[in-house]
Design goal:
Strand content: 15-25%
CATH class of the largest domain: Alpha Beta
Bound molecules: adenosine-5'-triphosphate, magnesium ion
CATH superfamily of the largest domain: Histidine kinase-like ATPase, C-terminal domain
Strand order of the largest sheet: 2-1-5-4-3
Oligomer: single chain
Structural class: alpha+beta
Length: about 450
Amino acid sequence: MPFNYKILKTSTFRLAAIYLAVFAFSVGAILAYVFWNTAGLLERQTDATIRAEIQALADQYRLRGLPGIVETIQRRSGERGGGIYLLANAAGRRVAGNLEAVPPEAIDEAGWIDFPLDIKVGNEKQRRSARAFHADLAGEYELVVGRDVQELRQFRDIIARTLYWALGFAVVLGLGGGWLTSRNFLRRVDAITDASRKIMGGNLASRMPVSGTSDEMDKLARSLNEMLDQIERLMTGMKEVSSNVAHDLKTPLTRLRARVESALRSDDKEEFRAALDKTIEESDRLLQTFNALLSIARAEAGQSRDTMQAIDAHDIVEDVAELYAPIAEEAGGTLTVTAATDLNVLADRQLLSQALSNLVDNALKYGVTAQQPAPRIAIEGRREGPSVVIMVSDQGLGIASEDRTRVVNRFVRLDESRSKEGNGLGLSLVAGVMKLHGGALILEDNAPGLRAKLVLPLHTV
Ligand SMILES: Nc1ncnc2c1ncn2[C@@H]1O[C@H](COP(=O)(O)OP(=O)(O)OP(=O)(O)O)[C@@H](O)[C@H]1O
Ligand SMILES: [Mg+2]
């Protein structure tokens, strides 16, 4: 696998490197402490013993003179496994002790000498490490007291080597771990980048890869996918709407054009006038359609959210009923209202009135049948748990259950209603307004007829 330098730049790797530094530092500190307390401790103890012995011998020289110290040194030199001793005169000649001469190795400032010591084991000579302290006895004699520290040095080396290995392992493992996690992270980022490139390249149906581990990357990929779903839905909706708009506005515009054209060809003033009147009428209808489309777009985009206020839907029900009651009566029908008070909702007054009006308008238009040409409309407003429900019921043909979802889309009109005027935008606006208010439009069977329900969240203060 080629070395991937990109990994060094990932934030995961950087984080891993920082952790590694801190980790290595603490491991190093712990190991140093361990060393200090094992090998270091033994060496310090040996040094202390040597110093104590030097002190004792110096005292002896002071108290008992040369014979005293010589006697002690000779005795101690003979002991097995004992120390290294040398008492030499000013000329450097041995007076007592088991060491030939003062070792030629450099004596450090404090007086310590580290030197190799050859000893006999059976017939063999062995070279071992020794450490001794060198002292001056009143300028007349030199005193050297030391120990064989071969084992101690070996022990120290073993401990030091172990500690270096441990530190090395920690660093290698840390680096490896950082490397692996970063590589994994980078791979997934690359996968997401690739997917987004593909999507930008026009493949809108493509989605971010989800590994199924539900970690942060998966969460990110999922929300990106949700966003893409939403965008795709909106784009499809847009396409549909624009083709619908184009299609549905073409007919009235063609009609308008034909009428004007034929009027132009005639010389009759009356016909001229009638054609112009019709043209105005038709333009008004077109304008109305545009306005309705704009209102739906605005409601769906949630633009009017800041015009929301706490209102009692009871008032809106009353207002709309008052407006439509005369129309219903004129058609020989009835419009009854039962609305509870305190139907508190957070709403845009104008949009909510418009939505309710659209429903009543539909009930007036479609709430009639051949057998029953007079519309019987009932508006009801009540609370249902955490919701406010406003219902408009009629006794017309109703909407078949399979059409109830589709009828809410823009420009959808059922075949039975072709004889009535309309654009098929009324229910779209109602649905848009409900969406804006966090509510829903529900169409139900009133047996006979349709029951359209506006369900809004109850507003509590
Ligand atoms: N109360 C109802 N009874 C039976 N069918 C209905 C009723 N309300 C709506 N519909 C059907 O749903 C279709 C869509 O209604 P919508 O209100 O969206 O459009 P429209 O009334 O045809 O036109 P617009 O409301 O834009 O003037 C209607 O054409 C009709 O077929
Ligand atoms: Mg309508």
